[in-house]
Amino acid sequence: MNAAPLWPVIASIIAAVIDWFGVALRRPWIEYAAKPATIVFLILWILVAVPLAAAWTLPGAVILAALTLSLIGDILLMLPSGRFLAGLAIFLLAHLSYILAINWGRPALVAGEAFAAAAVLALLAVLLPPVRAGLRRSGHPALVTPVALYAAVLAAMLWSSVGTLLRPSWLAAGAGWIAVGGLAFFASDASLVIDRFVRPLPGRRVTTHVLYHTAQLALTAGVILSLSG
Fold first, then answer.
1. For burial by CB atoms within 10 Å, which of 16, 26, 93, 176 has the most?
2. 1 has a pLDDT exceeding 60
3. Which residues of 192-227 are buried (b: 16+ CB within 10 A; e: fewer)?
4. What per-residue confidence (pLDDT) applies to 54?
5. Per-residue DSSP letters for 21-49?
């Protein structure tokens, strides 16, 4: 990764920290400005850190689409009236974009990925039943199917990101960053849904924001390493 264009990621980290303080202090106007700014600076980071020809290949364009969709999803979920279902749909598309970018041009499955898939499925089997029960108990039975679909796509993104650690083609090109991003994204979304529909989690909003921004930063860093290689 070129060390020269680091100002966008520094600005993104600063915006993220400001957002965390805004959430902790219950200052929505800070969150409304800082959370979208965090993603905008990550988009700029790709545009200035990756050679133009690589940025506009299909993987590069798909990652830019994933971040843009995440930005739209953030705005929808921050609206005072709440747009949970619309935000869920937008982030589902963002995860599909990440899955496509991570697996673009991938070789056949390598040893260990089947075990990773089994571990992810076991995790879903533990998390989904209480979430389904919570949705019905809280008067949101119509969300059971959309949330289950989103969980399946999120799990596929987690499996794809962790799987980069097992692929020789990724090991020298940001696999660690991609894996951290997938794990943090899964943890962020899981904490949000559990807090909203299963049981309150102390400090959940701050924790979710920290995990979410860690995920986006790590995924972006991994992609920049891959596209710059």
1. 16
2. no
3. bbbbbbbeeeeeebbbbbbbbbbbbbbbbbbbbbbb
4. 62
5. HHHHTT-HHHHHHHHHHHHHHHHHHHHHH
**Digit-coded pLDDT (tens) for 131-187:** 999 999 989 999 999 999 999 999 999 999 998 888 776 666 688 999 999 999 999
Under a CB-based contact definition with an 8 Å cutoff, are residues 155 and 218 in contact?
no
Sign of the C-alpha dihedral computed for residues 74, 149, 100 and 112 taken in this order? positive
Q: Are the beta carbons of 38 and 70 closer than 8 angstroms?
A: no
Residues 64 and 39: beta-carbon distance below 8 Å: no
What are 29's two structure tokens? 């106007």
Q: What is the DSSP letter of 141?
A: G
Quick one: pLDDT at residue 61? 86
95 lies in some domain:
yes
pLDDT at 89 over 50: yes
Domain, as residue range, for 84: 7-228
DSSP 8-state symbol, 142: G
Question: How long, in residues, is the chain?
Answer: 229
Which bin fits 26, alpha (ψ -120 to 50), beta or left (φ > 0)? left
